[in-house]
Amino acid sequence: MNQKRIIIIFTVILFLASEIVLAENLPKSDWPMFRGTLANEGHSDSQAPQTNQTLWKFNTGGQVGSPIIVDGIAYTGSYDRKVYAFNATNGQLIWNYTTDGIIVSKPSIEGGIICVGSEDFNLYALNASTGEKLWNYKTGYYVDSDPLIVDGVVYFGSEDSKVYALNVTTGKQIWNYTTGDSIMLSSVAVQNGTVYIGSMDNYIYALNATNGQLIWRYKTGDHIISPPNVFDGVVYIGSSDDYVYALDAFSGELKWRYLTDGDVYSAPYISDGVVYFGSLDSKVYALNATDGKHIWSYTTSGGVASSPTVSEGVVYVGSNDNNIYALKALTGEVLWTYNTEDVVISCPAVAHDMVFVGSWNGKFYALSAAEGSLMWQFATGGKIDSTPTVANGLVYVGSHDGKIYALNASTGMIGYDWELHNTVFWSYDTGDMVMFSGAAIANNIVYVGSYNGKVYALDAQTGNEIWNYTTGFAVVSSPAVYKDVVYVGSEDHKVYALNASNGKSIWKYTTGDQIMVSSPAIADDIVYIGSNDGNIYALDATEGTLLWKFKTSGHVVSSPCVFNGKVYIGSYDYKIYALNASSGFMIWEYTTEGTISSSPAIADGVVYIGSDDNKMYALDSDEGKLIWEYFTGGEVASSPVVSDETVFFGSYNCKVYALNAKTGSLKWSYTTNDQVVSSPAIANGIVYIGSYDHMVYAFGNLSEEQNSSEPIIPVEVAIIIGVIAITFIVATTFLLKTRNKKGSNIHTK
Fold first, then answer.
1. 0.70 cut: is pTM over it?
2. 377 CB-contact burial (10 Å; exposed 0-12 / middle 13-18 / buried 19+)
3. H or E element that contains 723
4. How many beta carbons lie within 10 A of that of residue 692, not counting itself?
5. Which of 324, 371, 395, 503, CA to CA, is 20 to 30 A from 517?
6. Integer angstrom CA distances of residue 654 from 601, 647, 672, 692
């Protein structure tokens, strides 16, 4: 089996007024684990939202480019084909727009219009406030070059070899100019009525900004990826022929060129009459901007594709040797270096006396500009080669994990309201996917499983590993903590009981097949869990001995729910079962029209569960009689949560539902942009749920007080709920069978 390393972000908390206590003693307003309680009840006493008012969303789309920030709004494109606009202060999504291709291009904005290119061959113009498409213009190939809007005209390049000028209001073409090859990542610079851009045909072009006529072109010895920099009447640009060029901006006449020993992808930076740039020959160069004479060069141990930044007489730049360098701008003398343990292509940003830069190890660093000491670091889930943006005390950066991060520039923390309070954040690399396993927290320790077969115990305040335990295969089951013991299933067929303090094995029990998504429920010193062998097991929590097992006719990936002496669970045999918790004898069964991956919730004598027949069911918990059913139009693998006489769940039809728990009537629904398999979590009147559109949604009732600048809920709760919710966004997809059933929305018996 191929496995890929993914840096998993865990965000955990210090409570403001009290420490985290044992999971079974947590207040009902919290949601510290899968299904909320050790018994997997899926029920909360918290107040529930009565509308689909969206409080916030967190975007986890595809790989993300560098954002731009204008008037408090951050705009960015993503490899998930979308353009996003979100509040730069609190990360709240304002709008998104979906194209038909990945977006490498960085947006440009002017006069309330945002322009961005896509690999669906189009340049898009969107209303900056609403995300509504104003127009699109189709070129002949990918548009990865960054557009630039100047005086009502948008200029950009395309891999169809052309440079375009369009009316930014109407999208009408003003002119186009054909170069001899693709225009890839080289972007437009516009100054004094002239458009400058490089092409893969080896030429640098200067075009009349009004009519597109060629003013001049200059041929280098190889293709051009470097963006041009125009300063004081001179165009500076690098080429893959190993040269950096300085050309007269008006005539294209060569002023000078300087030969390095490697391709120059780095964008030149001009400061105080000096040109600074990097080369793949491993050097950082400083040249006289007037005549190109060598002032100094500094040799790193890897190619320098990073573009340098100069601030307060210091040059900051990254290298493929994994280091970030601070060099004296006058002499090239090393002031300090910092090793990130992976390639640094990101261009550093300097603000607040700190240097911000990303690395391919997935971490984002804030270093003291003066000393290079680590101020803080933040681990994302993928490589970072985007350039950070710093504004209003926040650092914005994108990562290959598909996330855009807004971090407190002083602390590196992130938070719901960005005021952060006493929230502690950290990252821990398990070395493999944390696929379905949701974290459980007890006594300030985070317990979680990984696809590498290990169960981890991490300090909730620091992220330091306390212990890990290796099973025989992937751990996708969510652990439960009870009386200082961690219970969890593994795909090696076993159920494990581990000492919560030191990870020592207390006992293990072997079932007849893999234990996948089914997670343990614990009540009255008995552990209940399902297995792909079709059985539901009841094990003595202390010894691990089998008390009973009940055989269904299909895989059991549903997690059991234990309430009032009964075990409720679904099976792939289309049935919902109620079993005597002590003996395992069947009390009743109810047959749906589809396989069941959803886990049951119980409240007020009613069992709620979804089925792949597109329905949510409400059954009498004592007799199994149908009370109502609701047809969604999509498979219901999401496990319901019941709170305040409302049933919350998601469906494969992309919707989140809130139904009246007594009648099954619809209170509200909310349409996301993709299937909803995630199971909700609820705390303090807010419902959290994830979607395949890479968002985590929070729904609640906005009061005037909550609309103020004060946080709606404690940051600590919001963060942990978000982590638990997003963990299950992809749960059980590969297990589900597509079925299209028709029926009325509500049927009551």
1. no
2. middle
3. helix 715-727
4. 18
5. 503
6. 21, 17, 5, 8
The per-residue pLDDT for 431 is: 56
298 vs 708, more confident: 298
Token readout for 136 is 């699109």
Which CATH class, in words, describes the domain spanning 9-55+427-739? mainly beta
Residue 370 in tokens: 């003066």
Give 591's pLDDT tier (boundaries 50, 70, 90): very high
What tokens appear for 618 in the block?
Answer: 């409400």
User: What burial class does residue 136 get, using C-beta atoms within 10 Å of its C-beta: 0-12 exposed, 13-18 middle, 19+ buried?
Assistant: middle
Of 705, 78, 22, 600, the C-alpha closest to 588 is 600
Structure tokens at 456: 């981890």
Quote the CA–CA distance of 678 and 638 in Å, as a whole number.
5
**CA 146 → CA 114, 184, 186, 513, 733, distances in Å?**
12, 9, 8, 53, 37
**Chain centre distance of CA 105:** 19
Terminal CA-to-CA distance of the chain, rounded, Å?
48
Domain ranges of the chain: 9-55+427-739
Query: Residues 429, 433, 436, CA angle at the centre, nearest 5°?
Result: 120
Cα gap 180→162, rounded to integer Å: 8
Render 458-489 in DSSP notation, one character per residue: EETTT--EEEEEE-SS---SPPEEETTEEEEE
Which tops the pLDDT comparison, 57 or 292?
292
The answer to whether 83 and 107 are in contact (CB under 8 A) is yes
Distance CA 78, CA 85 (A): 11
Whole-angstrom Cα distance, residue 584 to residue 588?
11
CA 276 to mean position of chain CA atoms: 34
Match 């160069």 to its residue by tokens: 285
